[in-house]
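**User:**
Make up any protein.

**Assistant:**
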Amino acid sequence: MDREFLKSMGVSLDLALEAREIVRGETGQEVPGVRVDKETYDHASVTTVYIEDESAQAIMGKPVGKYITIEAPVIRENDPDAHRQVAEVLAEQLKKMFDLPMEANILVVGLGNWNATPDALGPRVVDNCLVTRHLFNYAPQSLQGGMRPVSAIAPGVLGITGIETAEIVQGVTGRVKPELIIAIDSLAARSVDRIATTIQLADTGINPGSGIGNKRAGINQETMGVKVIAIGVPTVASAALIAQDAIEKYLKNTNAQAGVTNEAIKSVLEPFGGNLTVTPKEIDTLIEDTAHIIAGGISMALHPEVNPDDYAYYLH
């Protein structure tokens, strides 16, 4: 798989880790201007990719910044204890990305379409996130120590609201005046193995809908005026890349000559404009479990002294 094929199919890579893997596969060496750190936990591995200069940005196709990838196949399993441990890893990594006092005001933004399950991760996270700003304003006696004022919004998508998502978030930001925005969105993966097993955190913000070929205004520090941390999970994969992988494996296993071209793949996908994406049949359960993990990780990071067992008391 090379960058030329991705470009020809109009596929962009949401995960910095996958972009690095493809470039390294082509060159056989580390990308100049890219630095990588790795950590290992019981149920997850963490890879941090630092894109440090504009030359690396051009090669990787990702903005200069810090990208933390948590790989945890256990997310797909029915194991609540393991899911809680993954949430704890997420909280630990998230806390490394901001340095704010306890009184800092945080806005959580759940991006995506709540009517389309693979795109509903952001709204589902908002449903389960521990929001407290209203309590600080109207019921301070209900609060305990170690809590921050947190508000949350699921602004929907352009096709539902008729309003650019970034415009809605800008409007809310202007009124709420947060010191930090945490935006959650569904991503597209290059590999089906990463669907609902991988969580990416980035300090570069996010472009809603970019993973399925859309061009939308970004939600980042430049457009919002405050720091934006993006959290994303792949929920779909490109059919073109799946087809290419299948062809490559078939040719390798049979020692056959390449007889299927990129044009053939394009012709098969032509009814969908070449942008067909696929998602697992169990996506409903995967979204629900992943949303709980991410909401738990965010709540642990923002309210460090609150026992997760007490979250239910504050939820809605």
Q: What stands out?
A: The CA atoms of residues 96 and 301 lie 9 Å apart. The chain has one domain: 3-305. The chain is about 40% helix and 20% strand. The longest helix spans residues 283-302.
